[in-house]
Amino acid sequence: MTLTAWCVLIVFASLAGGAAADRVRLTHRSMQFIMSSVGGLMLGIALLHMLPHATAQLGSTDEACRAAVAGLLIMFLLLRTFHFHEHEPLDPSHRHGESGECDEHPPQPACHGAHAHSPETSRHLSWGGVAFGLALHTLMDGMALAAAVQAGTDQGAGVLAGLGVFLAIVLHKPLDAVSITTLMLSGGWSHPARVAVNIAFALMCPLGALLFVSGVERFHGMQGTIVGSALGFSAGVFLCISMSDLLPEIEFHTHDRFWLTVCLVTGVVTAALIGFVDAI
């Protein structure tokens, strides 16, 4: 029941993100604040929740860390192949000259983080490649959520099982949906086509959760190992995503460094506070 509720909320959040791309144009600055906050939350969830739970399920810190390294490397290769974490507004007016963001000279690295592409480059990004990469990523998120709920249930977390992982996913999926819809919009795709792709993408997380649950049920006596390995692997995925989103925003941008750092710390602190909720 808990897993179903989380999946339904994630689907609605993803659909809302895709729909918002047609109506709301987030500025470069506001996008950086959101990404830093969510990135900090994902970083905290990976290290404070997923890895400890993976260790508890596997009974070995070494095995949990090996699974995390595997998840990090695979997600890194997916990012390198599809370059699908493109969260930058495509309208040039949102990129330069607003509140001083990225107003350095063009060659400066402040405007060339992993998410900072020129409008021309962004328009040439294949929305299909972005959608495929994000779909794989979201399938992994669904599996991570199912594993976290299973682990939390085993440890008596009740209806709040997997809360931290759910929050990290539900806050991140709208940004991913915005990426896909915005690229389709810039490519001239019709509104029905964008809606159809948005719906298909939103369903990837429940599909991943379903695949994990059905797979675990087939291996009686190995559930703990499977859940622990999935959590460790997912921790690596979350670490890769959080750092690939965080480093460019805090390290390479000269504007709002203090407030971007505050957003990062707020996300990590929120992840830590979730641990107290889980313990209730």
Give a written overview of the molecule.
By secondary structure, the protein is mainly alpha-helical. The protein has one domain (2-12, 41-279). The protein is 74% helix and 0% strand. It has ten helices and no strands. It has helices spanning 2-20, 28-58, 61-82, 119-124, 127-154, 163-186, 191-202, 204-217, 223-251, 257-279. α1 (2-20) runs antiparallel to α7 and α3 (61-82) packs across α9 (223-251). The radius of gyration is 19 Å and the shape is globular. The two termini are 19 Å apart.
Please name the defining characteristics of this protein:
280 residues; 0% strand; single chain; mainly alpha; 10 helices
Give me a quick take on this structure.
This protein is 74% helix and 0% strand. It is mostly helical and 280 residues long.
Total strand count, please?
0
In terms of DSSP E residues, the strand content is under 5%
- What is the helix content? over 70%
Give the low-confidence spans: 90-101, 103-124
In DSSP terms, counting alpha (H) and pi (I) runs of 4 or more, how many helices?
10
The helix-and-strand class reads mainly alpha
Radius of gyration from the CA trace? 19 Å
Q: Shape, please?
A: globular
The main β sheet shows up as: none
Order of helices and strands: HHHHHHHHHH
Could you tell me how far the N terminus lies from the C terminus, measured between alpha carbons in angstroms? 19 Å
Number of domains: 1
Mean pLDDT comes to: 80
Secondary structure layout:
Blueprint: H1 2-20, H2 28-58, H3 61-82, H4 119-124, H5 127-154, H6 163-186, H7 191-202, H8 204-217, H9 223-251, H10 257-279
Helix pairs in contact: 1-5, 1-6, 1-7, 2-3, 2-6, 2-9, 2-10, 3-5, 3-9, 5-6, 5-8, 5-9, 6-7, 9-10
